[in-house]
From TrEMBL:
InterPro entries: Ribosome_Biogenesis_Reg. It comes from Mugilogobius chulae (yellowstripe goby). Residues 145-155 have a biased composition (Acidic residues). Residues 143-164 are annotated as: Disordered. GO terms for biological process: ribosome biogenesis. This is Nucleolar 27S pre-rRNA processing Urb2/Npa2 C-terminal domain-containing protein. One of its GO terms (cellular component) is nucleolus.
């Protein structure tokens, strides 16, 4: 046995033994029991791993089949039953991981990365590049491995997947990334266990760094690509990038390397060089070398890789060596900054020449990166990381480090400004980041920055404009905090003055910048704000032609204003307007120096405006003289007429108008609020000039303004909408100012208008004189107020009059917010109205006890009368037509009164009296149909207004809310026996519903006697008598009885549905309340179900009418269903309650042709109820039921649009409702259910149906397509729909061409199809990528006939074609 042991051991070690024989011997030794090797299993495992490690380290060479045999042998050992038994026996057997095996993992990981990069490159959305991953691997390897990858990755799968060669054929692209993620995680854990961080750093930088950064780049590209082109999920993509970052951070920025980075980056180099090949590790230089070395790929691709990795490396460096535990560490901050400087060299921005002491040659061209966009994005990320990492301490940098950071950032800012790239948003964001670091970085070049990024920027890209606005807002906010806003504006105005404006540009102060400036000026000292205005005004004055200059111009017959100067004046005027309208106004508390500074500024501005106005006057006079002067040869005058040169002077005229309007507005404001301020403009010049005239000086002044004496450029102003607007505002402001200066002018009135003027004087001064008025005076005023309203007719009360009358003044005063603030007059007026009502009712019925005392209303007697009316079957007071009209007028007046102005006593009296009238009055028989419902409706409107009053709860001290509700419902029920179906009756029932809703909600909100009041109304509505009325079967010969039963049913259904809906809205507030509401809702739902079932019976005597129609029944059933769903949603009812009327609901849903128009809400609610009630069923059965219901609703909708009774008008009315239903169906639609819908659509777009004459079926499908494309869809459904959109477009284009051959189908079919195509084009903006489909639409539209059409058909056809062409131009400009 010893010979066997010695022989096998020696043969395994011997170099003479072939490797194939060694593998056979090893397999024999493992399975044979005759081979007695000490610790045999461990020895064989070590031999196998040692052989594999030697091959990967290039120490041993053997053929490829031997390598695969070793891997198979190792796999068999690890999966053998013998090894598992040994492990169960707790025998220690280990697979030793030494450094060699770590290098083996590095090599295998490199191969996996190569495969992954190859797959990502093949499926990348970016342009293809000649990237050779194997060449990168060979370049990264230190030992010069010369093995090359085969171009076909499928042929090389056995070579790369060495972990398990047996599964090579089953390896797919998705499996590659799963294996890669697993390998990265394993390698990361093994790497953390290595004891020599320097060797890990060397291995990673030499063999893994470039493959990893390329892999990360392609992973980022894959993450940004569309979901259709992804080879893996987004989560796997993120996990792989996170693992790459973890590997790089632990290998490149280990804690043991911090001293090396400090020695290399922050220590001063002594000049001594270490002899020999080995020396201290310089990690920063190594990383920079690996970043900047050019790999075997396109330079643009590699620049994208390294620019993205620069920010990643700096972020990892900050996380590893930043401030410890959040504490500020200046040395670590300086270390991070030094690393930032080192990384910035890889971006090729030319910072090396700026950082070196040698000045670059002025003749040398500037260093330009491969891609400015990528470089700017990298710089932005570096600066933002530096800002977040807080590595820049301004004070420490200045005191200890000689402003090294400030100089670097200044050099970077100089490069960004000298080689400005304002077409990229990242350029603005880089400047904003530099500004956030330190404003001194950009301050020396502030003027250049403002010129490039603001004044002289010509760009319309929305992303660039947004970045520009954010940068400018940050600039303004920064200089506001520094209290240097005047300096900022000084530099800005300097840039504007030096610039040459040859064409009109958008305003400098856009909305975002203006709002920021307004907020900043409020935080700026007022003196600085006035200083800014003065600087702006000085620049405006420089652009204004001076007098001596104007005379010279006159002599030379030339125009002083140029296009440049007029545009500058306009821009500066806009800035001055914005600044002045944002400063704090002067008031009596303003300091005197500020007032004097403002006074001097306003005087200077007034003089500048006068100069501008005088210039235009001189220009107009010169133009008129030139028209009278005849031309004389070649030396004729060159004076240009203002009317023929409107574009040249328009900006200057508009600027002058803007300055004048701004000055007048501010001058008026300062004069009103500050007594120490005096206006520079002479006061009432027009008054002194017109003292001897009989006309009003104000009228004369306004006439002078409107005549344009100050602004003679009438032609210029007329052609300018902005100038016309400014002139109108200026005239209005001048009028206000003159009124405040001149006071009240003497106004003469005739005898006919004296009373109106006197009444206006009294009403306008009532708040002042009311404390001095007695009771008789108040009664007199209230008499005139109400009497003037009662004298006019009801129609006149609803129309407004252009002339001022006593009734109009009184009406406006009653509606004003001032009247409720005069409680004494308000109370007297209300009492006058109530006494007027009592007098009318007393005239109608003198025997009632309530009318015996006319001086005071007895509330207790009114309450007794209300309770008595609950048991009486008829009304106690009958009103004539004249009395009804008088009550109408009084109620109209009461309706406009604000109930919050009533006292508790007045509101209680008013409400109780009106309730008594509601329950006890009716019109005479001959006026019953037209007057009674209208009167009751008007009463309810006033009662609803009083319900909103602050003191309404005081009413409930005299009578229960349940009694009020029962009284109103019973009164309406009593009137239903005598009324007929008309609009007034429908309005009355709607007002009754509003009253029930508000009062029930108030009862629940007050939480006082809730059970008593709600049970009282529920007992009345659900009583046996009510059920008998709902189940009434009148005689078929008595048509009057049929009408009575219909109206009674209408009232009961409306009351029950409103009551139930209000209770449902209050579920879930408290357990006790839920218990009460559940009990009541169970009763009301049962009663409603009884009523609906009696209506829907086939042999029911009570038929549908115009009021109780199918739509109304569906609305009631919807309320029932929502009530039952709400009851199910309560925790206590989940196991005790169920939907009790499901057969009724199913019966309604199964009749779509009759009910679908008004049943869409019911369909949506029923769909939700089916989803909720079938939660406990089997999943497959639930899905089948939902699919059936889904398709049934879709089929019903399509059938509704196909019916012969539907027309184009019906379709337009149905579209919004059907779209709402479709939106509900597809809101949570699964892919399978949506596919069923698409199949339904495909069946509907059958051209054979069109040829057979059945175009309505095709038309219904076309309408459904239009509505479906307008619905919000889940992501999967959205992608599926737009995937077949080109096929739908092609089919509809064929339909258009086919239907165009028949002119009779033009209006009913062709126009709707073209409209649907237009909707698809608009919704497909940015989605339809192939322009061929849009071009196909153009070809089909040309076939639509426009000849020999009726005017209506021609108008519809032309409009449809026009909208389609407009959609193509607007949404698909590439065509």
């Amino acid at each position: 046995m010893a010979a066997i042991y010695s022989g096998i051991h020696l043969k395994l070690k011997s170099t003479q033994t072939p490797w194939e024989d060694k593998i056979k011997l090893a397999r024999f030794a493992w399975i044979s029991s005759q081979c007695l090797l000490p610790n045999k299993e461990q020895v064989l495992l070590d031999w196998c791993t040692h052989a594999l490690t030697g091959w990967y380290n290039k120490k041993v060479e053997f053929p490829q089949n031997v390598l695969e045999g070793l891997w198979c042998y190792l796999d068999d050992l690890l999966h053998s039953r013998k090894l598992h038994c040994l492990v169960k026996e707790k025998k220690t057997i280990s697979l030793r991981l030494n450094m060699a095996q770590y290098e083996l993992m590095v090599s295998l990981l490199s191969r996996l990365i190569a495969l992954a990069c190859h797959q990502l490159q093949q499926h990348s959305v970016s342009p293809k590049s000649d990237l050779d991953i194997e060449a990168i691997l060979n370049q990264s390897a230190c030992d010069g491995d010369k093995e090359e990858l085969d171009p076909d990755p499928q042929d090389d799968l056995p070579t790369y997947s060495k972990y398990n060669p047996k599964s090579t054929e089953k390896l797919t692209s998705a499996k590659i990334f799963e294996v890669l993620l697993l390998a990265l995680r394993c390698y990361s854990s093994v790497q953390r266990q290595q004891a020599n961080p320097n060797r890990v750093f060397t291995l990673v930088t030499n063999q893994l760094f470039q493959p990893l950064i390329f892999l990360r780049h392609w992973m980022s590209s894959a993450a940004l690509s569309s979901p259709k082109q992804l080879l893996m999920s987004q989560q796997m993509c993120r996990d792989i990038r996170i693992n790459i970052d973890t590997i790089l951070q632990s290998a490149l920025f280990a804690s043991e390397h911090m001293s090396l980075y400090q020695d290399e980056l922050t220590k001063v180099d002594s000049g001594k060089k270490v002899s020999g090949a080995k020396g201290p590790l310089r990690p920063a230089s190594v990383l920079l070398c690996k970043l900047t070395v050019q790999s075997n790929c396109d330079s643009s691709v590699y620049y994208a890789v390294k620019s993205s990795m620069v920010s990643v490396l700096f972020k990892l460096f900050l996380e590893s060596y930043g401030a410890a535990k959040g504490e500020r560490n200046e040395e670590q901050g300086m270390l991070c900054f030094s690393f930032l400087v080192t990384l910035s060299e890889a971006l090729d921005l030319g910072l090396e020449s700026h950082l070196s002491k040698k000045c670059p040659s002025p003749e040398s061209p500037p260093c330009v990166p491969e891609s400015w966009n990528l470089a700017l994005l990298a710089v932005e990320s570096l600066l933002n990381n530096a800002l977040v990492g807080n590595i820049y301490n301004v004070a420490a940098d200045r005191i200890r480090y000689g402003e090294v950071q400030l100089k670097f950032y200044r050099n970077l800012a100089e490069i960004l400004l000298k080689q400005a790239q304002p077409s990229f948003p990242a350029w603005f964001r880089c400047l904003k980041a530099l500004l956030s670091l330190n404003h001194l970085i950009l301050e020396p070049d502030l003027e250049q920055l403002l010129s490039l990024a603001w004044v002289n920027l010509d760009c319309t890209d929305s992303r660039v404009l947004r970045a520009k606005q954010v940068t400018l807002c940050s600039l303004i906010q920064t200089y506001t905090k520094l209290r240097q806003l005047p300096k900022f504006f000084s530099d800005l105005l300097s840039v504007i003055s030096e610039s040459t404006l040859d064409h009109f540009k958008p305003p400098l102060l856009c909305e975002e910048v203006s709002s920021t400036l307004r907020a900043c000026l409020l935080d700026t000292p007022p003196s600085q704000a006035i200083e800014i205005c003065s600087v702006v005004l000085q620049n405006i004055k420089k652009c204004v032609p001076q007098k001596q200059m104007t005379d010279e111009m006159k002599a030379q017959n030339e125009i002083a204003f140029t296009a440049d100067s007029s545009l500058k004046v306009m821009s500066l005027s806009q800035i001055l307007h914005s600044v002045l309208f944002s400063v704090k106004t002067l008031d009596n508390g303003s300091p005197l120096p500020l007032v004097r500074q403002t006074q001097r500024f306003m005087e200077t501005m007034y003089e500048v405006i006068k100069e501008l106005q005088q210039y235009f006057v001189d220009m107009e006079m010169q133009s008129k003289q030139s028209q009278k002067t005849p031309k004389k040869g070649k030396r004729a005058l060159k004076v240009v007429n203002s009317e023929t040169n409107i574009p040249l002077t328009q900006n200057a005229v508009e600027a002058t108008l803007l300055l004048r309007y701004t000055w007048v507005e501010m001058d008026t404001l300062f004069s009103l609020h500050c007594s120490k301020y005096s206006s520079p403009e002479p006061v009432s010049q027009v008054t002194s000039e017109n003292e001897d005239q009989t006309t009003c000086p104000l009228t004369e002044y306004i006439h002078s303004l409107l005549s344009g004496k100050d602004f003679t450029q009438s032609a210029v102003i007329a052609n300018s909408p902005f100038g016309s607007l400014l002139l109108r505002r200026l005239v209005l402001q001048q009028m206000k100012k003159m009124l405040s200066q001149m006071g009240w002018a003497v106004v003469y009135c005739e005898c006919s208008s004296f009373q109106v003027a006197y009444w206006y004087l009294v009403i306008s001064n009532l708040p002042l004189i009311l404390p001095f008025l007695g009771d008789k005076d108040l009664h007199c005023i209230s008499t005139i107020l109400i009497g003037s309203q009662l004298e006019i007719s009801v129609e006149e009360m609803d129309t407004s009059s252009n002339c001022l009358t006593i009734s109009l003044i009184s009406s406006q005063f009653l509606k004003s917010h001032i009247f409720p603030e005069l409680p004494s007059l308000f109370s007297v007026t209300l009492q006058f109205l109530l006494q007027s009502l009592l007098s009318v009712m007393k005239t109608a019925h003198r025997d009632l006890d309530i009318f015996q005392n006319t001086t005071e209303i007895q509330k207790e007697m009114i309450v007794e009368g209300i309770k008595t009316s609950l048991t009486n079957s008829g009304a106690s007071v009958e009103l004539s037509s004249t009395q009804t009209k008088d009550i109408f007028k009084i109620l109209r007046i009461m309706q406009v009164l604000n109930p919050d102005g009533m006292s508790a006593e007045d509101l209680s009296t008013s409400f109780l009296l009106l309730i008594f009238m509601f329950t006890s009055t009716s019109c005479q028989t001959k006026d019953l149909d037209s007057s009674s419902p209208a009167l009751l409706k008007q009463l309810l409107e006033v009662l609803i207004c009083l319900l909103d009053g602050t003191h309404f709860p005081n009413v409930l001290k005299f009578i229960h809310g349940g009694t009020l509700l029962q009284a109103v419902v019973s009164s309406v029920l009593r009137h239903s026996l005598k009324s007929s179906e008309n609009k007034d009756w429908s309005d009355l029932v709607k007002e009754m519903q509003a009253f029930i809703k508000l009062l029930v909600q108030l009862i629940i909100t007050r939480s006082s006697s809730v059970r008593l009041n709600l049970n009282q109304l529920a007992s009345f509505l659900c009583s046996q008598g009510t059920k008998d009325k709902l189940a009434n079967r009148p005689s078929s010969t008595n048509t009057a009885t049929h009408k009575v039963s219909t109206l009674t049913t209408h009232v009961l259904l409306a009351s029950l549905s409103t009551f139930s809906r209000t209770l449902t809205c209050n579920l879930g507030k408290s357990k006790s309340l839920d218990e009460l509401l559940t009990q009541i809702l169970t009763q009301t739902t049962a009663t409603l179900g009884l009523a609906v079932e009696s209506l829907l019976k086939p042999n029911a005597v009570l038929k549908m009418s115009s009021i109780v129609c199918q739509a109304y029944v569906v609305e009631v059933v919807t309320v029932m269903l929502k009530c039952e769903l709400s009851l199910l949603s309560i925790e206590e009812n989940k196991h005790t309650h169920s939907i009790s009327h499901m057969p009724l609901y199913r019966a309604l849903v199964c009749r779509p042709i009759e009910f679908l128009v008004s049943s869409l809400d019911l369909l949506s609610t029923f769909y939700s109820s089916v989803e909720k009630t079938e939660e406990k069923q089997d999943t497959n059965k639930k899905m089948n039921d939902l699919d059936d219901l889904f398709m049934k609703i879709l089929h019903c909708s399509q059938k509704l649009l196909t019916d012969n009774w539907t027309s184009l008008t019906n379709h337009s009315e149905l579209e919004s409702a059907v779209q709402k239903l479709l939106s509900h169906l597809v809101e949570k639609c699964s892919s399978e259910r949506f596919n069923l819908m698409l199949l339904k659509i495909r069946e509907g777009l059958d051209t054979a149906k069109l040829r057979s004459g059945n175009y309505k079926e095709v038309l219904s499908t076309v309408i459904l397509i239009k509505l479906l494309f307008c619905c919000p869809l889940p992501e999967a459904c959205f992608n599926a729909l737009w995937l077949i959109a080109p096929q739908i477009l092609s089919t509809m284009m064929f339909l258009v061409k086919s239907s165009s051959q028949d002119v009779s189908l033009n209006l009913p079919f062709t126009v709707p199809v073209v409209t649907t195509v237009t909707t698809l084009l608009r919704q497909g903006e940015g989605v339809i990528a192939n322009p061929h489909h849009v071009t196909m639409v153009l070809g089909a539209i040309q076939c639509v006939p426009l000849d020999r059409l009726a005017p209506a058909a021609y108008n519809a056809t032309f409009t449809a074609i026009h909208e389609a062409l407009f959609a193509i131009i607007k949404c698909h400009p590439q065509v």
